[in-house]
Write a structure and sequence with these properties.
The protein is about 15% helix and about 25% strand. The model is unreliable at about 100-105 (pLDDT under 50). Strand 1 (about 1-5) and strand 2 (about 10-15) form a beta hairpin. The chain is an alpha+beta fold and about 110 residues long. The chain has helices at about 20-25, 60-70, and strands at about 1-5, 10-15, 45-50, 75-80, 90-95. Strands 2-1-5-3-4 form a five-stranded mixed sheet, with helices on one face. The radius of gyration is 13 Å and the shape is globular.
């Protein structure tokens, strides 16, 4: 099991090695919109990695392309559906408004 921290919730959770950040968030019963079905094409699961980027799987060409279209993307941006947890110490910042499951919830 690997330990990650979710901000701004200040919540520590345990996940199995190789679990995607998206699955970790869904396991916490967070309603995360995943418009593309977790294929790394829509960016609705965009998160920021405050620390521990090296503990995640490398960014794929598809993820890099998708991130290039996000105006709020930064050097520490990842798509939660593509980032797999490989080691401890990852701190994930969840952007405001990320907990929306559907347009009807706005």
């Amino acid at each position: 099991m690997k330990h990650i921290n979710l901000q701004p919730l200040n919540q520590d959770i345990e996940v199995e090695t190789n679990t995607t950040l998206l699955q970790a968030l869904l396991d916490q019963e967070m309603k995360i919109l995943q418009a593309c079905g977790a294929h790394g094409r829509c960016a609705t699961c965009h998160v920021y990695i405050q620390s521990g980027m090296q503990g995640l799987s490398p960014i794929s060409p598809q993820e890099k392309l998708t991130l290039s279209f996000i105006t709020t993307a930064q050097k520490n941006s990842r798509l939660a559906c593509q980032a797999r947890v490989l080691s401890d110490g990852i701190v994930v910042e969840l952007p405001r408004g990320m907990y929306v499951g559907s347009i009807g919830e706005l």
